[in-house]
Amino acid sequence: MTDLICLGEPLFELTACPDGSFKGGFGGDVSNVAVAAARQGTKVALITRIGGDQFGKKLRSLWSREGVNHEHVEMASGEDTGLYFVFHNDDGHHFVYRRKGSAASRMLPNQAPNDAISGARMFYTSGISLGGSPELRSTTLHSIQTAYRSGTPFAFDPNLRTALWPLDKARQVTHDVMKRCNIALPGLDDARQLTGLHSPGEIISFYHNLGADIVALSLGADGVSVSEGQGIHTIPGVMVKAVDATGAGDCFNGIFLSAYLKSKDVLKSAELANQGAARSTTGYGAVDPIPYGKT
Question: Residue 278 above 70 pLDDT?
């Protein structure tokens, strides 16, 4: 049985390094989560489409190396795989995307494997999957409904990208999705924009009230606050020499879900994920620095 099945858009990554060169790598939030979970020994599958180009082929090779099941990934001949660039300055990391019309953005609901979603122990997707395109949004909503109807637990990161869709639309759709969510994995900055609230406690209560059973609110370098509805536990950040925070939230999500599927211990899972996410910021790129766990 698949432990975790993930739906979203994978991307090829080009990171600007201090010497002016670009380092090739891999990204796309849901693919990052799948790799992070697989590196902890979890059985993970990915649902998406990629182009029949060199970038798509490299992504498929990545998943083969990492042990991510990609039988539900269609390689679309004549279509393109999405790309993104990562640039750094004193304010942190910034993204430039080249994903419009990508193979994943054209994925339709009838291309999502309902049986695979229904048969998994958990389903995961994100707000980027909802905002990527109207077609991908419809597919994502269809798959969420499939998980809900079949009783497959559903984990969701709102992962706001206002470059993809307007804030008002993102707020409306993600709040509605939260009503079917078992595990909410928001980041603090995104959650503040989406909810209009400021404090972690208010935000966690808001997502519980929408329907989430578990909320793990990432606080960036300040750690994470987690709740099962009977109080909030805040785990402080881990001091590291960070160089690139790209994908740190995805790393947290993948490790958290992997640990939770094994132990059902929310606090222990958050502690492990907090440590792993911090370690992932000590190298460049979204995937290369993701730590390996014990199988």
Answer: yes
